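CO-FOLDING WORKSHEET

Operator: S.A.
Ligand of interest: flavin mononucleotide
Run index: 327
Mode: holo prediction, single chain
Checklist:
[x] sequence pasted
[x] SMILES validated
[ ] output reviewed
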Amino acid sequence: MSRPLPSVFDQALASAVRAPSPHNTQPWRFVVEHEVIQVWLDRERVLTVADPHRREARLACGAAAFNLQICLRANGLAVVVRLPDPAEPDLVAVVRLDGNQKATPGERKLAEAVFRRHTNRRPLLDKEVPPAVRSALKSAALSEGGQIEYLDASGRYTPVASLVRQAEALQADDRAFREEAAFWTHREEGSPDGVPNTAAGPPPLGHGLVSLRASHENEDLPSREYEREPLLGALLTRDKGPHAEVRAGMAMQRVLLTATAEGLATSFLSQPFETPWTRDSLDRLFAGLGQPHTLLRIGYGYPTRLTSRRPVGEVATHRTGPDVPAR
Ligand SMILES: Cc1cc2nc3c(=O)[nH]c(=O)nc-3n(C[C@H](O)[C@H](O)[C@H](O)COP(=O)(O)O)c2cc1C
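OUTPUT RECEIVED:
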């Protein structure tokens, strides 16, 4: 007997959970009802020390909503995405089917990249990102209402790199930060959440301009030299607040998928967003340009392993669903 085709919503949910999230916490839940998928923020899975205002969790939920949307679009379905209503702050996005619309090759390329994108914490190759690729990432952010600001081009590289190092040092000195990071990292490969050692990078040999998270180092690997000055892009939106954070998550995910499709490796440097003093300093540095949400390290590298996710059945509730087979 042949197995039934997965419904297009099954495929969209499988895409959604491949979104990045801080320490792979996966702070989301989905409710499928008729032609709608709701994306809810799961407060039980928010980092209470690093992310008390649930800012990073909203970025992750925005990225999951983008994956839903791009998967449905690649299946030839038009979608409308509604962002949060202040009356229901944990309902971060509502994705609704809106008839049919032929997928573009660009949309199909991004939908395929969902299952290859991953955070690469290893040293990058000594190879510049060409101007055309830098522009493609900028356009990706713009088309979702965000903005990528390359730090080398803006004169902000040195002060931002210094804030990353200072925030990393503050967190290393803070027991609550250390305990929270220890809980979510150094997991076995195949762990349904958290960061496994296979996704951690080797300890750095010497000091680069920026510090990756020490909690994401794999002490079992021999130390390696990292690139001294990686390409860094700050992701900004014009506005601030919960709505802007979900929008930023969607823009971030389009940038990450575009980077994956272009053969780039990416990782995050979130430490300065997580301690109040460095976050205020970042806000001041970008005043006039927009609200900074995250900092991406971008370059070429060798692909590393994908990390696992909790099964879709654990995070999605089906009230009903359309009977459209996935293409
Ligand atoms: C808002 C946000 C902040 C993150 N910050 C960091 C970070 O500072 N350092 C890091 O190595 N990874 C960071 N990550 C990446 C997550 O750890 C990663 O997405 C998660 O472990 C799942 O792995 P994957 O991206 O390879 O699928 C961040 C992800 C998100 C969405």
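REVIEW:
The two ends are 20 Å apart (CA to CA).
Residues 20-24, 56, 59-60, 118-119, 121, 195, 199, 213, 216, 267-271, 294, 307 surround flavin mononucleotide (CB under 6 Å).
[x] output reviewed
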